Amino acid sequence: MPDPLTLAVAQPPCAALDVPANARAHAAAIRAANARVVVFPELSLTGYELAAPVVSFGELTPIVEACAATGSLALVGAPVDGPCIGVLAVDGSGARVAYRKVNLGGAEPGFFVPGPAPAVLEVDGWRLGLAVCKDTGVPQHAAATAALGMDAYLAGAVDHRQESVVQQQRAERIAAEHGVFVAFASFAGPTGGGYDETAGRSGIWSPAGALLERAGPEPGGLARATLEQR
Q1: What is the rounded distance in angstroms from the CA atom of residue 11 to the CA atom of residue 90?
Q2: Less CB within 10 Å around the terminal CB: N or C of the chain?
Q3: What band does 176 get if pLDDT is binned at 50, 70 and 90?
Q4: What is the dihedral of CA 208, 5, 214, 60, to 10 degrees?
Q5: What are phi and psi of 223, to 5 degrees?
Q6: Count of the separate structural domains present in the chain
Q7: Distance, CA of 106 to CA of 95 (rounded, Å)
Q8: With 90 as the cut, is the pLDDT of residue 192 above it?
């Protein structure tokens, strides 16, 4: 049985298309979180700007340095090769693409292609299923990820202000159906794609569907919990 895992969900302020500034904001959030794994929202490095170019790993130095200093793994949202809506796994040694969003929504198919398959990332003996926004509303996605073996289901999201209740409903359903921890890192503040206001209220839920910790609606919020397997 693995040791307890400290997990944080972060919603840093975002400057549209300003990857260097956003990388610094991510680094500050990682240092503040004091967690082994820190999850960020969908397209957190660019904002929900569907025409944003693929992010260069060379722009992620502040995040790499923060992870090296804290021993954290950051799961960061960014456009990646495909082009796809991706999740980057960043630690003190650098960055790699850990997951590409499978279920595209809204105008996304005009800019991105779907990722090939669900993915699980192993950290300190914990198997972490990865998801992005609409993935969480497709029951088959969580089921296919669970089939790979997972202890927690971690998602980055962008939702309208009134949709935080939808995130909670999805988290409770996934926890109930698969008996896993669930974490949503939800964009806070304005971003692109018609999102003048976003939901924030990033949260972490237990395998029983109980809310463990939740951030507020404002940019800069953070929630942190220690996950233990029983």
Answers
A1: 17
A2: C
A3: very high
A4: -140
A5: -130, 145
A6: 1
A7: 28
A8: no
Angle, alpha carbons 86-91-97 (nearest 5°): 20
User: Residue 73 maps to which CATH number?
Assistant: 3.60.110.10
* Token pair for 148: 């790979």
Residue 145: CB atoms within 10 A of its CB come to 26
Per-residue pLDDT of 78-115, as tens digits, reads 999 999 999 999 999 999 999 999 999 999 999 999 99
Are β-strands 37-39 and 73-80 bridged in parallel, bridged antiparallel, or unpaired?
parallel
Round the CA-based radius of gyration of the chain to a whole number and report it: 15
Q: Which residue has the tokens 């693929």?
A: 54
Domain of 80?
A: 5-227
Strands 221-227 and 120-123: unpaired
Residue 118 three-state SS = coil
- For residue 136, give every residue at least 6 positions away whose Cβ sits within 8 Å of its Cβ, in sequence order, or none: 142, 153, 155, 157, 167, 170, 171, 174, 184
Q: Cβ atoms within 10 A of the Cβ of 125, count? A: 11
For Cα atoms 130, 150, 125, give the angle at the middle one, nearest 5 degrees: 100
Name the nearest CA neighbour of 49 among 191, 200, 197: 191
Phi, psi of 85 (to 5 degrees): -85, 115
What is the Cβ-side half-sphere exposure of residue 90, based on CA atoms within 13 angstroms?
31
Q: Which two tokens stand for residue 230?
A: 């029983």
Amino acid letter at 67?
A: C
